[in-house]
Amino acid sequence: MLLKFRSLAVITIAMWKNLKSYFIVEEEGKKPTAKTLPDYKTASLAVQPTRTAKPASAAPAAAPSFASAPKAGSVNDRSIKVLMEAMEAANLPGFDYLEFKKALQNLKKMNFTDSVRFQTAFAAAESMGATPKQLEDSADHYLKVLEAENQKFANALAGQRRQQVSDKEQQLTQIDADIQRQEAKIKELQAQIEKLKVQQEKLQTTIDTSTEKLDQTQADFEATLQVITGGISQDIANIKEFLK
Fold first, then answer.
1. How high does pLDDT run on average in the chain?
2. Which residue has the higher pLDDT, 69 or 159?
3. Measuring CA to CA, how many Å separate 232 from each of 125, 170, 198, 235, 238?
């Protein structure tokens, strides 16, 4: 049974990597940077911050602003895997856009123009009953699948932002108020005030770390999505231009 599961896992990995090669062009000797990103389908986006103690003499920190500039994302293997698996799971029966895309990729070794490549691939597709309209419709189908994955990701990310950032912002605001009240008391309460300051710094570090990683996760996913959907959109344009 263990051997069966291992074989299935190997087949699944090979399948998404093959599908990935249809859409992601890697430079020779290079590949998209594989960041350790969370899988929004199966894992929490939570991160563990490094605790930094705040000097005892430091003044209470003002409530921070959490607005940040949009990050420049990059294509990464985790996002590719999620998107490719979604497309594979939604693979339509028979010869459709994915099979056509594979044929196009195989013909890239032949130094053909795009027009010849599309015409040659379509000759094989046509022998299996495919039509330009069917190829275009099935390509649209996969764009819808990717959009659904985009929505799932957006929903998961929003939930994690609420949990990891917004809730902690409220905690931080409450601690700031506690610090102000404690500092008005007599000297015997100074130890409690310092304890709260350490907690305040820890929460601030958690918020900063979480915000940074979540923003990068979003940017990487959106960059990956843009590359794949852009490739499909270009193929649709080529189908309309070359397969009339």
1. 77
2. 159
3. 17, 43, 51, 5, 10
Instruction: Provide the H-helix boundaries in the chain.
Output: 2-23, 77-89, 97-107, 114-127, 132-161, 167-183, 190-242
Residue 4 has, within 13 A of its CA and on its CB side, a CA count of 1
Q: Of 32, 74, 39, which is closest to residue 226 (Cα–Cα)? A: 74
Record the tokens describing residue 2, joined without a space: 């263990």
pLDDT at position 26 is 62
Rounded CA gap, 149 and 147, in Å? 5
pLDDT tens, residue by residue, 83-111 = 989 888 888 888 899 999 999 988 988 88
The rounded distance, in Å, linking the Cα atoms of 60 and 196 is 10
CA angle 143, 145, 148 (to 5 degrees): 110
Q: Which among 94, 84, 97, 88 is positioned nearest to 239, based on CA atoms? A: 97
How does 83-113 read in b/e, with b if 16+ C-beta sit within 10 Å? bbbbbeeebeeebbbbbbbebbbebeeeeee
User: pLDDT higher for 170 or 223?
Assistant: 223
User: What average pLDDT does this structure show over 130-151?
Assistant: 93
Tokens at residue 183, please?
């500092």
Tens-place pLDDT, residues 16-31: 466 777 787 665 555 5
